Amino acid sequence: MSLSTSWNKGFFSKLIGLFRGPHDPTLRNIQEAIYVLEKMANFIDSTKKTLENKYEEHQRRAKLFASEGKKEYEKIFIEESRHIASLISLFTKVHFDIVRVKHRLETLTLVEEPMKLLPEIAQELDMIKPEIERIAPELTTLFYEVRRRVNSIMASSNFEALSSLYNERNVNEKKEALLPPLPPTEKPRVKEASLQSSNIIPFKTLKKLIVDEIKKSGGVFVISDFARKYGVPKHMVRTALKKLEEEGVIRSH
What we know:
By secondary structure, this protein is an all-alpha fold. It has two domains: 9-166, no CATH class; 192-246, Arc Repressor Mutant, subunit A, CATH 1.10.10. The chain has ten helices and no strands.
């Protein structure tokens, strides 16, 4: 099955005219991510239509065998029709999710402030990943290309500047961009053993989770979000960050 899709050059030519310049790496990454998502959506939609045709064919054959009194054959096609129907539902959901992310990225090309939604878009992509690997593994490479570009956008200086602007305008939703400042040096260091006994997550595991989270988000790390996600006190997260800094694993900005 072909992954080819019609590329509307006129549409994206008009979009480019709205941007700060054709060489802007952030905008270029967004455009290319949109293009890849469109290819993925077209492939999913094409496969879904093929399944729908097969479903109708199985339904006709089941009725034919029923009219001929061949109950065993009728049962085969009824069961397979149910299986295909469940696949159609899954393909429909994945197509919807991909199109939703695509349009969210298109919004970012029109106005800058929604750049704050990029972490949320990245999270939505991660939620789609298992379903894509299940129903269309041939799209996995394209998926990772989109995810890589979203990470590049979040790690870019443009995104950092926009995030800072958003933080100043929304004090009640204050976020800690990139790595937070380290605790005061005069504060006594807490031994790893005591940390392990005070929380269900071992300290080594906590450090690994932090590193994985930083890699996954393209360098953006929010202490409050991480602490809420894993149920870990914020002071433990800060201590783990300091330890990773001392070990040379990460570097704060």
